[in-house]
Amino acid sequence: MEIRTGFPFRGKALEELRAFLERNGLAYDEGVRFSVCLVEDEKIAATGSLDGKVLKCIAVSPEFQEGGLAARIVTELAGEAARNGVFHLFIFTKPGNEFLFRKLGFYTIAKTGDVLLMENKKNGIASFVSSLGQPAGTEAAASPAGAIVMNCNPFTRGHRYLVESAAKQCALLRVFVVSENRSAFPAGDRYRLVCEGTAHIKNVLVHPTGPYLVSSATFPDYFLKEAFYGNPGAAPLSPRSINTLLDLSIFAECFAKPLGISRRFVGTEPFDPVTAEYNRQMKEALPRFGIEVIELDRLEEEGEAISASRVRRLLQEGKLEQTRALVPETTYDYLVKNRGGPLDERR
Q1: Less crowded by CB within 10 Å, the N or C end of the chain?
Q2: CA 2 to CA 41: how far, in whole Å?
Q3: What is the model's pTM?
Q4: How far is 33 from 7, CA to CA, in rounded Å?
Q5: Cα separation of 93 and 111, whole Å?
Q6: Is 127-337 CATH 3.40.50.740?
Q7: What pLDDT digit, counting tens, does each position of 116-136 carry?
Q8: Which among 42, 41, 97, 109 is positioned nearest to 71, based on CA atoms?
Q9: What CATH superfamily is the domain 2-122?
């Protein structure tokens, strides 16, 4: 059986891959960076794709189900990931495939009626969450405990206002900063700016999300919107196509439950339709887990809501000085030192 690879596939090869996935009840994911096909008599027998650390679009033709082809596909994808220095892997697949991938060394993180997420590290997410701990001098059972999940691209006065407002309503507030490196500002810089910008708030603890919240594994649509906003010719995401339930289930079951989080805070979202839809679905889903969702009005400057996208727009226009009114001094100092940013970690 012939092995064919694409980085990713183009032209006729991509058309054939799309058709094969459709016949097997799957859709091709535009975010994939690498694909592999096992071909018999010029027909695809099995396929799989890789998006960073996420294995997805894995399908085996019904006539080859007993041939161990899924294992061969996973081996090829894992090998490509290893060549890029990635060893902690995730599988994004259908719930019906859970037993198959368990046999291949993957462990379930969470699943919904439509989607299953697994990783190749036993107790990986549990170990990550247990490592977050408690701040010094805080009771383990501090109640109520709240949470915010933010990208902070970059950290603005609006973000700081949200954290300050939420902290007044909690004994302990955990702020999770998105770790995925698919934003204009590098993850490490975004995390540091949040730590510096909230250091004066005594009941706040800042954490990275790791690969588990608002990541390419749990909420890929969040990063597909970046491609749309940077490419006017791309088709916008439809709110109906955005599925946040997996990400929200992971937050509720794997983060909120062991950490005693009973409130999640969000800011109103007048600009970004993807985040607005995320907030809407959050308000429907999280109360079913006993988590209250509290939406706070955005801070405004000169009649317009402060947003990271507004800051980035000014930077792109070369108007660094005008961002000073929109960001904390720590963020502004960072922008000055980096000639206005943003720094693109993908370079």
Answers
A1: C
A2: 9
A3: 0.88
A4: 6
A5: 9
A6: no
A7: 999 999 999 999 999 997 655
A8: 97
A9: Gcn5-related N-acetyltransferase (GNAT) (3.40.630.30)
